[in-house]
Design goal:
The protein has 218 residues and is α/β, with parallel strands linked by helices. It has one domain: HUPs (Rossmann fold). It has a six-stranded parallel β-sheet with strand order 3-2-1-4-5-6. Helix 2 links the parallel strand 2 and strand 3. The radius of gyration is 18 Å and the shape is globular. The structure holds adenosine-5'-triphosphate and magnesium ion (MG). Adenosine-5'-triphosphate binds next to helix 1, strand 4, helix 4 and helix 8.
């Protein structure tokens, strides 16, 4: 039997995140990955109820979806999916990948993530299946130490290791945590998030309160 030709398969990137809020760090690594790996598109998938982040109140899925949609609007290669926010119960990457796999027409999926997330990969639900369904683009910054990650990599199979592509970008030191903190303290977030996202945060009074009640109810 002739092996199916995989060389010409569509390559799509998946950019998962809480996006609370989305910022230029996210947009930058998505664009760098698209360019470096020849991805036809990058789909942003805001998490529904992320299992790793239950400890703090998270802005409602609809607000995070709206901010993400605003942020990606100017890039024709970027798209957004509500696949995770629509799912009830906790979000598991494997379920999302499985769903995309079933919907897709043999697309090759690249899951874009900060390299630090790879440290936790062994705790993910059904990691064997995750590696069958996607390859990883793990973004590092200059000076990134591989010491911790090497320990994790040594516990993966060769095939799995080869499905993680490390990619160094210039690095933008922005985090959503920092942005939420800045808003709460009245510090500027201009040039850290797209203008429409900044306006949206102001309009709905997001991040002014600390803790679980801070989301403008919606
Ligand atoms: P928080 O501070 O709430 O954890 P965050 O800024 O890390 O938010 P997430 O939504 O948790 O944003 O991240 C989604 C993905 O983007 C993760 O894979 C994360 O590693 C990556 N990421 C976030 N910020 C950056 C950045 N400045 N540079 C590179 N990767 C980033
Ligand atoms: Mg994070």
């Amino acid at each position: 039997m002739v092996a199916p030709d995989t060389a010409n398969r569509q390559k799509i990137g998946i950019m998962g995140g809480t996006f609370d809020p989305i910022h230029y760090g996210h947009l930058y690594i998505a664009e760098c990955s698209r360019h470096r790996f020849g991805l036809q598109k990058v789909i942003f998938i805001p998490t529904g109820n992320p299992v790793h982040k239950r400890r703090r109140g998270i802005t409602s899925p609809s607000r995070r979806m709206e901010m993400t949609a605003l942020a990606i609007r100017s890039n024709p290669y970027f798209d957004i999916s509500a696949i995770e926010v629509q799912r009830s119960g906790p979000t598991y990457t494997v379920d999302t990948l499985e769903e995309l796999h079933q919907e897709g027409t043999g697309e090759k999926i690249f899951f874009i993530t900060g390299a630090d997330a790879i440290l936790e990969i062994l705790t993910w639900k059904d990691v064997t299946r995750v590696f069958e369904l996607c390859e990883f683009i793990a973004i590092t910054r200059p000076g990134y130490s591989f010491r911790e990650i090497d320990k994790v990599l040594s516990r993966l199979t060769n095939v799995q290791r080869n499905r993680i592509h490390f990619h160094q970008t210039g690095g933008i030191l922005i985090s959503s945590t920092d942005i939420r903190h800045r808003v709460r303290c009245g510090e500027p977030i201009k040039y850290l998030v797209p203008e429409q996202v900044e306006e949206y945060i102001k309009e709905y009074g997001l991040y002014l309160l600390a803790g679980p009640d801070r989301d403008g109810a919606k």
